[in-house]
Every structure is written in structure tokens, then in C-alpha cells.
Amino acid sequence: MTRIMTDETEKRPPQDDPVAIAILSALADGEALQFQDIAMRIFETRRKAKDRPDGWRRYMTSVKQQAVHLARQGRVEIVRKGEVVDPNDFKGIVRVRLAAD
Prior knowledge:
The chain is an alpha+beta fold. The protein has helices at residues 7-11, 18-26, 35-46, 60-73, and strands at residues 76-80, 83-84, 95-98.
């Protein structure tokens, strides 16, 4: 299937993923958060009565992927032990914070 690009669709800026928007809003107060903290915040906004208490775990992969994507764009930084790490190669417990201007 071929996608036809019109002038109107070419002018639209790319939209962020809902998880990326949630990450940016969670970091808006200047705090540095772990992936788990962000996943828990997303879960709490979407929680249903029948959900298990550890339902936030289903958001962990999406949070990690979108945080790496935002870090590659320079919009956030992934930090380990106070040092900014390469978003393509990091291990251990890390935090995400808004990028320094």
C-alpha cells in the first residue's frame, strides 16, 4: 500500500507518543525520576478497579523506550550516579530528568 503525501500532511509536526507526553509532564517540576516512578504515575491515571497493584509493570517497557527516544532527541537526559549516560548504552538504576538548556 502506498501512502500519498499531500501538502497538508507534510506540514504537520510529528506528534509525541502518549507515554512520551506522560514522561515530560512527570518531569515538568524539575524532578529526576526512575522509570518505575513514571510507570507508576501512568498506571495510576489509567487504573481500573479490577487492576492488580503491580499493574504499573506493563508500562515499564514503553517508558524505557520513550525515555531513550526523548534522550536521543535531546529533550531529556538519562542519568546514572549523577552523570549523564549514553541513551544507547546504559545499565543499572538510572533516573530521567529534563535536559539542561
